[in-house]
Write a structure and sequence with these properties.
Shape: globular
Strand content: under 5%
Helix content: over 70%
Distance between the termini: 17 Å
Radius of gyration: 24 Å
Mean pLDDT: 78
Number of helices: 23
Structural class: mainly alpha
Order of helices and strands: HHHHHHHHHHHHHHHHHHHHHHH
Number of strands: 0
Length: 532
């Protein structure tokens, strides 16, 4: 095999930078598996109906928090790195905290008073219905806590410090919620337990986030009275305001099906359907973590290479990120889809109604990966409005199709399986509409295309190894369930090894596989690869 020439004459070291950053982002996002495991446990303990109410209200809290932080999390990323000194950085953080906490507290007060009105639109079982107004009033105060955590951790990221944030956001928040959620379940607080435990987890997380702020900024510096820089405040608010609606649109992509299911299916079944869909969605989130990690790193690199003379490097990274994401996502989707019954059954037999939704969501995420990281490219090269317009179109499609398809879902499958699958289908159509629009815009506005001749071989190899993985899972499905799942995971790892070994060319394989791994396991590289 000959050495691979860089596409468009670009420097492959840019792809190496992309992969190194993506590996770090993937390690951070892997910690989110704690959340997935805790949600499976909570669904089993509290039941699909109470869990469904929790997911619906948690989506409402997150959406309101995105509105309340007023884009200050992104404003910090832009303004703090350019701060001239610590006093200026502290002033910027103080402005951000003042804006977000003021708005979030006002929103929480409004949500507290509006609780009886909101409760009328939420379907719940008889036990939870009796406490729903009080639950909403209690959980409303998660909004300022979440905003405080978001702003504090964004300020830490602005200092290019990532490790402590991952510890705070994943291990502290999820850890405290898991401990107290289990405690309240055993104490018999079945209606309030999930909500109180989450508030406690958020409160502890906020304290640790403030501790990080003290370490990197100094709390006395933030609370010291300084003169107001009106020009800085105006610039921050102007920038942040443009970010609020795109962030909201992105959140509605994932949460709208929960609301549609809960509102359109009456009684306890509406809450149950939302809970089952939430588990299916979280399960499929494992697939999407590979694409998100690449986009997380690609965005700032794209921003730095957006000039016309650097288009070749941008095109090369775009294609490389696309084929790498697809080749990782296909076997990941295979693992989840062919183990869907065992995984969904972990939370209880009623969650098997979400198995068809798992197939739809996983297939849709593979299709989305096929469009490439176009949205990240558009955002970072200056087309701020296009991603928002695309997201609005996608969310509108999801909502309209959900309202039409969910009532018809029972015609195609028994029980709740049909409506839940219909909600998943509407979500995937909306998500892919957004992705396809971004792909077309990147192509026709900037002539950026996600595929090249180098993409054919790794994708075909990924499909081949994924087919073998699917066959292995099917053949061993009658054995002991934990062993069956372990075989699937081992098969998934072997598929990744095979894709690296036989799918990618020499330079790409050396970029993707860390040096220490290459030295210890040289068989992972293509036959003619060398360890530099």
């Amino acid at each position: 095999m000959s050495n691979m020439a860089p596409e468009n004459g670009t420097d492959p070291s840019k792809n190496a930078t992309l992969v190194r950053g993506a590996r770090l982002a993937l390690m951070g996002r892997a910690g989110a598996l704690i959340e997935v495991l805790s949600l499976f446990l909570f669904a089993q303990m509290y039941g699909s109906e109470t869990y469904g109410i929790f997911l619906v209200l948690w989506f409402v809290v997150q959406a309101l928090a995105i509105f309340s932080d007023f884009g200050m999390t992104l404003a910090l990323q832009r303004f703090i790195p350019s701060g001239e000194d610590e006093i200026n950085a502290g002033r910027i953080l103080k402005y951000a905290l003042s804006v977000s906490l003021t708005i979030s507290c006002v929103v929480s007060v409004g949500l507290t008073f509006a609780a009886p009105f909101i409760a009328d639109f939420i379907n719940a079982n008889e036990r939870d219905s009796q406490h729903l107004v009080d639950i909403i009033r209690l959980y409303a105060w998660a909004v300022p806590l979440w905003c405080l955590i978001d702003v504090c951790t964004a300020a830490i990221r602005a200092q290019q410090v990532f490790g402590p944030e991952i510890k705070v956001r994943i291990f502290y928040e999820q850890g405290f919620r898991l401990v107290f959620g289990s405690l309240f379940y055993f104490l018999g607080y079945l209606s309030f337990g999930l909500f109180i435990s989450h508030l406690i987890g958020l409160a502890f997380t906020a304290l640790f986030a403030l501790r990080l702020i003290h370490r990197h900024y100094g709390l006395p510096l933030i609370f010291t009275k300084t003169g107001r820089d009106k020009a800085l405040v105006r610039d921050m608010v102007s920038f942040a305001f443009s970010m609020v609606l795109p962030n909201l649109a992105k959140k509605w992509h994932s949460g709208l099906p929960l609301l549609v299911l809960n509102v359109m299916i009456p009684g306890a079944q509406g809450a149950e359907a939302a809970g089952i869909y939430g588990i299916a969605r979280k399960l499929v989130s494992f697939i999407n973590v590979f694409r998100e990690s690449l986009e997380y790193v690609l965005a700032p690199i794209a921003s730095a290479h957006s000039k016309l003379e650097q288009k070749g490097q941008l095109q090369d990274m775009f294609r490389f990120a696309t084929r790498l994401a697809i080749c990782l996502i296909i076997p990941a989707a295979t693992l989840i889809v062919f183990n869907r019954y065992g995984l969904m059954r972990l939370s209880g037999s009623e969650f098997l109604a979400g198995t068809l939704a798992v197939i739809i969501l996983a297939s849709g995420r593979v299709l989305e990966a096929g469009t490439g990281p176009s949205t990240a490219i558009l955002t970072m090269i200056g087309r701020y409005r296009l991603p928002f317009i695309n997201a609005v179109i996608g969310v509108t499609l999801t909502g309209l199709l959900g309202v039409i398809l969910v009532p018809l879902g029972s015609m195609f499958a028994e029980g709740l399986m049909g409506p839940i699958a219909a909600a998943a289908l509407s979500a995937i159509i909306g998500i892919n509409a957004t992705a396809i629009l971004a792909n077309l815009e990147a192509r026709f506005l900037y002539d950026l295309r996600p595929y090249a001749r180098q993409s054919v071989k790794p994708i075909l190899v990924s499909l081949a190894f994924s087919a073998v993985l699917a066959g292995l899972i099917v053949v061993t499905e009658d054995i002991w369930r934990p062993l069956h799942f372990a075989i699937g995971v081992i098969g998934f790892v072997c598929a990744l090894v095979g894709i690296m070994r036989y799918g990618f060319q020499r330079q790409e394989a050396e970029i993707i596989i860390p040096r220490k791994v290459r030295e210890k396991y040289p068989f992972l590289l293509p036959r003619d690869a060398t360890i530099d």
